[in-house]
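Researcher: Go.
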Amino acid sequence: MEKTILSVAVTGNQTTLQQHPGLPCTPEQIATACIESAKAGAAITHIHVRYPDGRPSMELSHYTEVVERIRNSGVDVIINLTTGPGQRFIPSEDDPKVAAPGTTLTHPMRRVEHILALKPEICSLDLNTMWSGASAVINSPNSITTMARAMKEAGSKPELEVFNSGDINLAKDLIDKGVLDKPPLFQIVTGIRYGLECTPQTLMYAKSLLPEGAHWAAFGVGRLAFPTLAQAFLLGGHVRIGIEDAVYLRKGVLTPNNAAMAEKAVRIIDELGGEVATAKEARQILGLRN
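Model: Structure:
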């Protein structure tokens, strides 16, 4: 059995301080959460950045400080930077073609500025176009192609975030066109409203659509985060957990931090007969640069 790669998503951009008062927000807090999670067994840390008050950020200086703190810590962990921010459009009620306040939709090269500057081993690449609350998430094939080419220039492997079956079909088309390299790395996202449901049947279906030879992981959002982690492992995939995806360690118990979630993930995998990969082993599995 191949070792399982555990990724911890430490903050995201949707979880709020009201939901978890210990949400990492400053660069120091985010970096510390990544380092602690790595010590607890995570091979990959998935990173968003925020302003100190908790608002989502796209500031290069925030990414730079987080990455430098991790790289200078002496802890070996694969850095996975998000490129998700900058994809949301909120239509005005009076004129839907005009952006309402809160719209973040921007040029795709702005969304990969930090990838070109910091050259992480992995970076996420969202393939979804869908509704998310009051905003439409928009990732056109042209924008995805532009971002994928920038990632290739930076030497970063795209982690393909897929929220629906159509996203997987789009990925296959981009692979066939040479925009995305083989073998691809997929992250199957479940539990987002209007996306893939957080059920074993849905996860099995999504896995069945993946191209042959693909690496893949999956996660669930909310109360089914840990059951989805176990299901992904049982289906032969890699796994993800973290305060981006859920805030409870178990029913009614707010997780003290991301490291506690990583520790629980390691226990689940161990109890099911598996073993988590180190960062070095994860690089070998995924064929990352050393």
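Model: DSSP finds ten helices and 15 strands in the chain.
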